[in-house]
Design goal:
Shape: elongated
Structural class: alpha+beta
Number of strands: 7
Order of helices and strands: EHHHEEEEHEEH
Strand order of the largest sheet: 1-2-3-4
CATH topology of the largest domain: PH-domain like
Strand content: 15-25%
Largest sheet: 4 strands, antiparallel
Number of helices: 5
CATH architecture of the largest domain: Roll
CATH class of the largest domain: Mainly Beta
């Protein structure tokens, strides 16, 4: 009988929802714009091989794209926030992420080689950061997105200090 993994202790910042929402809305607007271009291209060309119901309703393509992508943008941002969590126990960093497929990552602090924090322009505007924890193995590395900048800075410092202690104890 398998036991389910418990949730990591800490949530990411609620402002991460806004970050993902803005990113998703920009992407949805691009998709709707592309649908407009395709609809205009099909409408202006002789596409007699297409069924008549498609040619007659091609102007509805951008509306259909908007009805699909804008609600999906909202759902995805909220869902990701519900799933993304993290925890630092002193010897292990435990992170869960994803929205359609989920990933649980346990990074032993003894294997940590670098801890970096980064900010894109939108993360910087919202006071958020991404913490990147790297090991020699790509599979053992992880990123925790959507952290408050101060939390990311403190966590990076704590992980780096603990990794140094663990390495010093091993020699």
């Amino acid at each position: 009988m398998t036991r389910a993994l418990r949730d990591p202790e800490h949530r990411i910042s609620p402002r991460a929802v806004l970050l993902w929402l803005v990113q998703n809305m920009i992407l949805a607007a691009i998709y709707v714009g592309l649908a407009m271009l395709v609809a205009g291209w099909i409408d202006g060309a002789d596409w007699s091989w297409l069924p008549g119901w498609i040619r007659g309703n091609v102007r509805l393509l951008p509306l259909l794209a908007a009805l699909i992508f804008f609600p999906l943008a909202v759902v995805e941002a909220l869902w990701r926030y519900a799933v993304h969590r993290w925890e630092f126990s002193g010897d292990v960093v435990y992170a869960r992420s994803g929205w359609i497929s989920r990933e649980w990552v346990f990074v032993p602090v003894s294997r940590v080689q670098t801890v970096d924090k980064s900010q894109g322009w939108l993360e910087r505007a919202l006071g958020l950061a991404t913490l990147k924890i790297r090991t020699a193995s790509h599979a053992g590395s992880t990123s925790i997105k959507g952290l408050d900048f101060a939390v990311a800075a403190d966590l990076a410092e704590r992980i780096a200090q603990r990794a140094k202690q663990v390495r010093d104890d091993a020699t």
